[in-house]
Amino acid sequence: MKRILSGVQPSGKIHLGNYLGAIRQHIEMQNKFECFLFIADLHALTTVRDAKIMRENTLNLALDYLALGLDPEKTIFFKQSDVPEHCELAWIFDCITPMGFLERAHAWKDAQAKGKKDTTVGLFNYPILMAADILLYQPDVIPVGQDQKQHVEISRDTALNFNKHFGETFKLPEPYIKENVATVRGTDGVNKMSKSYGNVIEIFAEEKVLQKQVMSIVTDSTPIESPKDPKKCTVFHLYECVAMSTEITNLKKKYEAGGFGYGDAKKELLKKLLEYFGPARKKRIELQKNLRYVDEVLEKGATNARKIASATMAKVRRKIGTR
Ligand code: ADP
Ligand code: TRP
User: What are the start-end ranges of the E strands in the chain?
Assistant: First the structure.
């Protein structure tokens, strides 16, 4: 059975882009693959510098995944920092990675281009920790959003580089990017949906907040009575991601017929989102009443993950000669 692995940072509330671009695939795949999924808290440390927020975000993310259908019997679900081998392997990779290789990474180049003064060694090194996250478990496939493609490529190059120096050790992982949701657009109608742009629809937000976020989607100024092009509309783009094909066809007809405003379309989208995420929203409230269960899931996940990670590290230590 093929092995898949992915991680998500506990860096804030999850949004529709995260769900469609990554989380939905993680949950669907657990029925067909051997799955590893972790909360990348050490990666989040590049932006979250408050212990209370880190704990809250981590718990919230675990609750989100469990509510959305992650089954801990099928997926090894754990917290990155509970498996110290991630950092050990990252250091070993650091020692064989040329600086210039990481200087070309998008996230670092973007930070430089924006002239960010508070960039850190951690941010520069982010892709190497990610390569360690991946290669420790020797997975076949890494399901991520489009923006993580380069990071998966860096992990492949890191595997090749290590193998070249120390002999065949790591197999090369493949990214898996689902095409139609590779980049979900945000409520500003321009940028990809992202916490950092503040253009998100938070799937577990209170109904009022969700409504506000949906109603804030930027549309053009075509008058109500005129026909509209659904392809150009962010409301339609988001609707398409969660609705069934008959519902999509119906909404498309309403757009093209005219007499149907963007406000109406937003109401349909809100209704659809509440329906689509209804069961998960309910389940999350239930899970919140039993936080001990969430801790137990992550503890058990870490124990299982460590078995694999420590076996890989034993091999790596022999290869590099520290054992
Ligand atoms: P954000 O940009 O909001 O900080 P993250 O970087 O934490 O999101 O992304 C978590 C996962 O969700 C990654 O696999 C990423 O590729 C995916 N993802 C994030 N935003 C989108 C989007 N707008 N469309 C598709 N996938 C996305
Ligand atoms: N960098 C990823 C993100 O921001 C999170 C992540 C960390 C990850 N380690 C990983 C994803 C390993 C896949 C595999 O979304």
Answer: 3-8, 34-39, 75-79, 141-143, 174-176
